[in-house]
Amino acid sequence: MDSPLITAHDLRLLSIGYYIQAGIACFYTLLMLGYSTFATVLLANINKMAGQTNQQEIPPAVLSVISILIALMLSIFCAYTVCMFLAGYWLRQFRNKMFIQVLAAFNCLAIPYGTLLGIFTFMVLQRPSAKQFFAEAGAPPPLPSPPAPPSL
Predict the structure, then answer these.
(1) Residue 17: is it exposed, middle or buried by C-beta count within 10 angstroms (0-12/13-18/19+)?
(2) Within a domain: 53
(3) Triad 27, 29, 35: Cα angle to 5°
(4) Residues with Cβ < 8 Å from 18, sequence gap 6 or more?
């Protein structure tokens, strides 16, 4: 029993789920940004204190590696958050099915809520009516017919 009306409703619910998951990811990304700022200030002050008390400083190379790793993690989390918002938007527009499926696969790693969202995404997108929605939305508009040749 594959009703287009039910599938459209389920795709809307999935879109809401992706928006919620994106909000959660955004919250944790901001939390990580706060912790990384705290860690940066802490490490800078440790080196300043070590220089004043003749203790051994943290090597600058280690600080550089830590900074690069934190920046890399933050950029990955920001990209993931943006992708989640895009998936929610594109589910409502019936566009970019492959992108949504790839993101659903990555989302399965976010236990427990992301796993459920990813599995339900695969289940809904495999329906024939969902395939039809995405095929109709992704099809280019028809080309205009050429003008008729002038009659003599």
Answers:
(1) buried
(2) yes
(3) 105
(4) 84, 85, 87, 88, 91, 117
Tens digit of each residue's pLDDT (9 = 90 or more) over 15-74: 999 999 999 999 999 999 999 889 888 877 877 777 676 677 777 788 888 889 988 999
How does pLDDT run across 28-43, given as a tens digit for each residue?
999 999 998 898 888 7
Tokens of 55: 């203790």
The answer to whether 35 touches 74, Cβ cutoff 8 Å, is: no
Residue pointed to by tokens 């969202």: 117
Model's pTM, two decimal places?
A: 0.79
| Cα separations in angstroms, 40 against 49, 63, 70, 88 | 14, 9, 10, 34
Residue span of the structural domain in which 13 resides: 4-136
Provide the number of structural domains found in the chain. Answer: 1
